[in-house]
Task: structure prediction
Amino acid sequence: MTAGRPKKPIAQKRLEGTYRNDRDRDTLELDPIVSELPVPDSLTEKGAIKLWTSLLSQFLNIGLLSDIDLPLFEVMCKEYQKYLIYDRKVEENGGDIITLKNKSGYKYPTENPYLKLKYRALNKFTEIAYRFGMTPSDRAGITIDRKEDNSIENSKAKNF
Result:
């Protein structure tokens, strides 16, 4: 295992204006996906489907996603789907703290068991999202030349 930060994709370096041929000459560069992809059957929640379609179109517009990234991208959307399901279950089952009764009839407050599952799914989603540059700190260094591609601005306006 190597120490330090993970390497940035070449497409991201080009967007940031930090790409240098002499440094990245031996790096494998994958071609981005050309066309739109259907939503996987494994995604059934409305919010997860919206996440898939909006992020996929934005990543395709800037060329940061290739065929090899799709399984991990799908796993990320599935974790978001789990988060949505567990969040709903927490609300349906009385919120963050629920009251249970022991054998002798004594009632005591305890943490909702779905809460731990909800946060586990959120943590997994966040770990994967970090790899795709989806946190504000990851995006801080990315600058996009608006002269070349105005479709990104248009897609953000449509999706949000």
User: Anything to note?
Assistant: Residues 10-17+41-159 form one domain. The first strand starts at residue 97 and ends at 101. Residues 11 and 108 are 55 Å apart (CA to CA). The chain has one domain: 10-17+41-159.
